[in-house]
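Ligand: iron/sulfur cluster. Inputs:
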Amino acid sequence: MSQQVEVVPGRNCDGCTMCCKLLSVAELDKPPVSWCTLCDVKVGCNAYAGRPTECRDFYCGYLLDPTLDERWKPSHCKLVVTREEQLGETLIHNDPARPDAWRREPFHSQILAWAGAAVAQGRKVIIWQGDAKIAVLPEAQTA
Ligand code: SF4
Ligand code: SF4
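Predicted complex:
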C-alpha cells in the first residue's frame, strides 16, 4: 500500500533520477550505484506506470524536508538523503562519480549538524559511497 506523504510545495523530481542510480531496487534485483535499466537518465522512468512498489513509495529527503533548500536537489548536489526511521538512521547516498560531494558546503556543515543532533537522539548519520560506509560523528568521520 502506498504511504501518505507530504511533498514540500514546489518540489518535484523533474530532471533528476539520481535515486534510480544510487539506490537498490530489490524487486528488480537492481544493485545500488548503477543506473536502473529502465531509467531515462535525468528524464524519468521508462516504466513509470508499472514501476515497482519500492519506487512508487520512495520520496527522498529533498522532496520531504522543507529545511533543505534547492541546493539539495539530488541532481545538483549528487547526494540523496533518506531517513530510515525504524533503524534510527539518516543516510546520505553519495554519487561515487563525485566522491567529494558530501564534503562540500553547505552539505558538509549540515551533515555534521545532523550527526551532532543524532548523538543526542540515539540516531546515526551514515554516508554511503559505493560499497564504502562512513559513520559521521559530530567532529570527526570514521570509515
Ligand atoms: S532523488 Fe529525489 S528528487 Fe531525485 S528523482 Fe529520486 S525522489 Fe525524485
Ligand atoms: S523502475 Fe523506474 S523509478 Fe524505479 S529505479 Fe528504475 S527507472 Fe527508477
